[in-house]
Amino acid sequence: MANPFKPTAGAEPPHLIGREDALDLFVEGLEDGAGAPGLLSIISGPRGIGKTALLHRAESIALEHGWAPISDTATPGLLERLKHGVEVHLRELGKREPRWHITAVQAASFAVTREITPASQIDLRERMTELTTILREHGTGLLITVDEIHSVDRSELVQLSATVQHLIRDGLPIAFIGAGIPQAISNLLNDKISTFLRRADPIVLDSVALDAVRDSLRQTFADSNVAISEDQLTMAAQATGGYPFLVQLVGYHVWRLSKVDGVTDQTLSRGIEAARKRLGSTVLDTALADLSDVDRTFLVKMAIDDGPSYMSRIAERMGESIKYVGVYRRRLLDTGIIRTAGHGKVEFTLPYLAEHLRNHAVQLHNPGQGS
Ligand SMILES: Nc1ncnc2c1ncn2[C@@H]1O[C@H](COP(=O)(O)OP(=O)(O)OP(=O)(O)O)[C@@H](O)[C@H]1O
Ligand SMILES: [Mg+2]
Predict the structure, then answer these.
(1) pLDDT tens for residues 298-354?
(2) Residues 243, 208: Cα–Cα separation, whole Å
(3) Same domain, 79 and 171
(4) Which of 218, 253, 280, 321 could disulfide-pair with 271, CB 3.0 to 4.6 Å?
């Protein structure tokens, strides 16, 4: 039997833990149709928290409701690809009627070589109007999802916003969900161009509850006939810190070592250890690579503490003023990597990041300056 856990960015997990609230609102939106609040959302959260997985789930749900989804990961040429996606849906609908059938379209799979021109932009609006008008007759609509939305070219985003807004004004059934890391999203929202995005419903993803993690692990191990005790489930759940990427990593490695003879205390601890190592080389390094050198130095100085760090101590260790260090505090809060922990204190959001930084501080920054 194949390992049921999926510790890969963007992969669909065996259970999507703890995202019911966000999805309920979306489903209500699909049922209420044009103009419903759940149809315009922005998902944000740190790396590995499950933004892409949630987008994918939203697309499948839309499909089940007869909505036509077009998904894209932001790279230049977004609008031209969306146009292709709209054409594909229109063609399919033309062919298949009266038998009503919708399939998912991945805009990202269209190769695009040219920029969209103003004439072509009007065309996109017309074609989207045409598609959503047909879909409305069937009581459904069009869903556009854009992952890593902060990488969208600004002028393309302005045009996309204008088009979507136009359709909403005309009472046409259009849904839009974007996703990205918090810092980038907040830059985007502060930008004057995105009044449309500011009106979107913010879905801020956080760790999931340990009880829910334990239930999901219990179910997945049972479904694949690998024995695990309640105590072991509790320990495994605790080791994940409720962080979705780590749930998959811990599940994957414990399952892999235990698939023949069931989970033992030894396979459990070895699996957790392997998961932690992988977390460092995958998610944590990626999250750190998003940052500037000073951001990383801040984190390295923070990691000296066990538990929350006083800002005053971080400033001292960096040899800078509180005011200077405060700028970096703000930036890091915006990335979702740290959070406030009471007055004048901050702590890490991502599990094992402090440990990872302590082990790798030398490579990361300031060789030779331990504290
Ligand atoms: N709600 C969830 N329950 C269980 N596992 C999840 C959940 N959400 C995501 N995962 C798993 O966590 C890992 C990371 O998910 P995903 O790639 O969606 O994160 P992300 O927020 O998009 O990260 P990035 O910012 O790096 O793109 C994947 O292995 C995925 O299967
Ligand atoms: Mg992602």
Answers:
(1) 999 999 999 999 999 999 999 999 999 999 999 998 888 898 998 999 999 888 999
(2) 6
(3) yes
(4) 253
